Amino acid sequence: MCGIVGYIGNKKASPILINGLLRLEYRGYDSAGIATMEENQIVVMKNKGRVNNLNQLAGINDLKGTLGIAHTRWATHGKPSNENSHPQTDNSNEFAVVHNGIIENYHELREFLKENGYYFVSQTDTEVIPNLIDYYYKKENNLLKAVSMTCKDLKGSFALEILSKYEPDKMIVTRKDSPLVIGKGNGENYIASDIPAILSYTKDFYFLDDNEIVELTNKDVKFYNLDLEPISKQIKVIDWGTSSAEKDGYDDFMLKEINEQPSAIRGTIGAKLDNGNIEFENLNFNKEYLESIKKIYIVACGTAMHAGLVAKTLFEKMCKIPTEVDIASEFRYREPLIDEKTLCIYISQSGETADTIAALKLAKQNNAKTIAISNVIGSSITREADYSIYTHAGPEIAVASTKAYTSQVVLLSVLGIYFAEILERVYNQEIDELKQEILNLPSKIEETLKCCKDIKKFANKVYKETDMFFLGRGTDYAVCLEGSLKLKEISYIHSEGYASGELKHGPIALIENGVTVISVITNSNLVDKTISNVQEVITRGAKVLAITSENLGDLGFDTVIKIPKTNKLISPILSVIPLQFLAYYISKEKGLDVDKPRNLAKSVTVE
Ligand code: M6R
User: Which residues line ligand 1 (CB under 6 A)?
Assistant: First the structure.
């Protein structure tokens, strides 16, 4: 997805902008550009391809401006090309704009502008914005007013940075349904769509809400609503270490993030399980309310949805509340049955996923209480939800989510136990044992990480395959779906996760000599059942990698990875680790870009 960076201060802007864009590369993009203010004139440099190509353009080092905007574009309207890259300017190069999001009524606005003498050189939806600003500026002679009038005409989603040669000491930024943060420095200000882009410069952030417009100079940050009435905002301090957005000696962010899981999970557990009952700073549910809940919906996308699938079993077993897990893009359009007796939990690592946010708004309209689980303090979803709780896993940069998944499962588990304690529908001993197992997780994850060498060997045997199957039952099935997604995402190998019991109902037709099957076997009550399913594929010639906490004996597996035993309700937190390594090492064997897989973006801020 597109990325935005901006700077206004006393330093040369271009290196700061380029550095910020490089830090946003993980989001996925196909072109990049910057615009700086050079002696009251806007200079735009942009091109198709990587940020490093942009940084080599002739003249880029001569830019001296101390105010600039920058963008990485992920093509939506119009193919990746120099003309379609951002910044986009008006016909006279007096206004420059970078834009994340989609302008839904751009066609109508184009026609209006054409009727008023404007022409268009790109196929983008964005190009209407600088021209519309120009149109209003000619009437108002005031940039802030022109931007506010323009925003009122736009339908869709947008995060915008705007420069004008008429007010060369200023930058205007605004947002609607697309993230934007402002980093406050000393006599300088930074802007970004994502915190990691500017984390090395400041830890003091303002998080913009929808329809807020900000006028920035070196010293001032002034906030307004869409009608240009001043509003006040508080700074939030982000406690992520600077090195958390660096590779720290690892080859890739994904490998670093897999290995960070013990400390990430310690961060997630925090002090919540320290003594006696679980406390959540931001939650105050009482027994009466929880007893009134007839259904829990857990709604999310991709890996976050898979974390919800693990938690479903825990919520139903420990809280005795029917729990449904839904894909956000389906949930928002299928008229789900929601009322004040429904509790809706939304999971989003980035907190910016458009479908998940829309699904949350739907629950609020139907009077359900909403809880957001996110890794990013102040992210959009946390500002929409009634309650927000954080995974505190540190920034996740690799597109393939690893530590975010495990920290989400941990946080959901702690939340489920918190509800269970209040509801008193299961024995205390069951609750206490599960709490203890959660406390043991960081050291068990450390133990599990040792499987990397054996997984690397297995990856070396199978990386040329074109199809793989992941089989499991119970929570092992939930983790199979995640393992399969990880493999598809970064190794481009087709794979399917199946509930082992479904094998005979169709998928076994695909099993033939040499096919690779990954079998996850940790749910002790289901071991015999799973083993008999696995034997069926071994008999048909499958090459099987077993990931297990059980003593399986010699059953004809190709490779067995032994992981520590834990409660089956949380075993995916351990069993996913070999699956993460498998996807990682296969991708490396294939020589692919692990952190930035093709066609994918880290946060999906459009529908
Ligand atoms: O930021 P979110 O947690 O809302 O993102 C949801 C999915 O886009 C995300 O989990 C995606 O599936 C990952 N790339 C998986 O590795």
Answer: 301-304, 348-350, 353, 356, 399-401, 489, 603-604
